[in-house]
Amino acid sequence: MFNVVDPKKLDFNPFSEIGERWMLITAGDADKANTMTASWGGAGVLWNKNVVTCYVRPQRYTRGFMDAKEYFSVSFFPEEFRKQLVYCGRVSGKDEDKISGSGLTVLNDRPAPYFEEAGTVLICKKIYVGEIKPEGIVYPEYDSSNYPEKDYHIVYIGEIVEALTK
């Protein structure tokens, strides 16, 4: 059972939660949704709003869901769910029902789908969409090492409208 909490009261280190433990970015609805594992992102404040920043490569199947929907979720899991996060990062929802295949339980009682097994969930309302542009990358080696295919990330910033914890 989740509890609604003030995002400012979360016991949450974005550097370890996102960068080391990873998150699932999920968008869609009860009829059709997709999720993807991400280890790049951030949490902070923009326009006086508590926000999450997500980066999605343009070819990812999740991008269509992120573009089509007003809300998305980011879910953070206890370490025992690492295998499911690896699976969700390796398999494309375009090729199979990744959510069912993960063994995770999707919940649809909020504006965006999320997962029962998560320890922390942030329900986000999309407030900005943009693209990383090569001319904005200050150090050329960051471009060459992160974008050899020139598939620059789409940036999604979502206002945290609800934070859920167990």
Folded structure, characterized:
With 166 residues, this protein is an alpha+beta fold. 20% of the residues lie in helices and 38% in strands. It is built from five helices and ten strands, in the order βαββββαβααβββαβ. The chain has helices at 14-19, 62-68, 82-90, 98-102, 140-146, and strands at residues 3-5, 23-28, 33-38, 41-46, 49-56, 71-76, 106-107, 114-115, 120-131, 154-165. Strands 1, 2, 3, 4, 5, 6, 9 and 10 form an eight-stranded antiparallel β-sheet that branches. A hairpin with a 2-residue loop joins strand 4 and strand 5. It is globular, with a radius of gyration of 15 Å. The mean pLDDT is 97.
Task: Describe the structure in brief.
The chain has helices at residues 14-19, 62-68, 82-90, 98-102, 140-146, and strands at residues 3-5, 23-28, 33-38, 41-46, 49-56, 71-76, 106-107, 114-115, 120-131, 154-165. The protein is of the alpha+beta class.
Structural key phrases:
alpha+beta; 5 helices; 166 residues; two-stranded antiparallel sheet; single chain
Secondary structure tally: strands: 10
Largest sheet: 8 strands, antiparallel
H/E series: EHEEEEHEHHEEEHE
- Low-pLDDT runs: none
Strand percent estimate = 35-45%
Summing up helix and strand content along with how strands pair, one would put the structural category as alpha+beta
Distance linking N and C termini: 6 Å
Please give the count of helices: 5
The average pLDDT score comes to 97
Helix content: 10-25%
Rg from alpha-carbon coordinates? 15 Å
Shape: globular
